[in-house]
User: Which sequence fits this backbone?
């Protein structure tokens, strides 16, 4: 019996937990990337440094860093030199939008990534995490709505019972 209860609580905990394996990035790494951009020797090195900085920003725990990374990636997306670079930037944008809780936008960007590389495991893994999160949010929303309806009906029933 105890193992059944523990199993139930473990499954509830995993349902409400984040469950993603996307790495986080510290302010120290972001600062190092910013220094690297500032000290870039040429345009090519600066572009590579900007991509690393964007990676660090969208993997940050700070929402303002994530938003800054998204803005940098969106501004540089049109100037990508290769399909590989475009794919990488789209993936990083998807990570940023996932971190911000914009799961629909993240899924849309991942689908664009997968158009160019349908077997890219990193994008497939993140897409599954995003879709799981969308499902969880939908279930939670339905639960909250059902609870609200139940409270309203209970209130009406209590009011009717008092009048009798």
Assistant:
């Amino acid at each position: 019996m105890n193992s059944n209860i523990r199993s139930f609580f473990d499954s509830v905990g995993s349902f409400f937990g984040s469950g993603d394996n996307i790495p986080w990035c510290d302010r120290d790494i972001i600062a190092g990337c910013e220094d690297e951009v500032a000290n870039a020797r040429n345009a090519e090195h600066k572009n590579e440094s900007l991509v690393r900085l964007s990676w660090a920003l969208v993997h940050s725990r700070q929402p303002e860093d994530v938003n800054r990374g998204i803005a940098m990636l969106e501004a540089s997306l049109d100037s990508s030199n290769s399909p590989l670079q475009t794919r990488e930037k789209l993936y990083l944008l998807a990570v940023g939008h996932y971190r911000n809780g914009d799961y629909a936008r993240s899924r849309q960007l991942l689908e664009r990534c997968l158009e160019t590389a349908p077997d890219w495991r990193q994008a497939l893994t993140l897409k599954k995490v995003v879709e799981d999160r969308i499902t969880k949010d939908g279930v939670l929303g339905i639960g909250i709505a059902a609870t609200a309806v139940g409270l309203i009906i209970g209130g009406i029933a209590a009011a009717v019972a008092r009048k009798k």
About this structure: Residues 7-18 have pLDDT under 50 and may be disordered. Residues 114 and 120 are 7 Å apart (CA to CA).
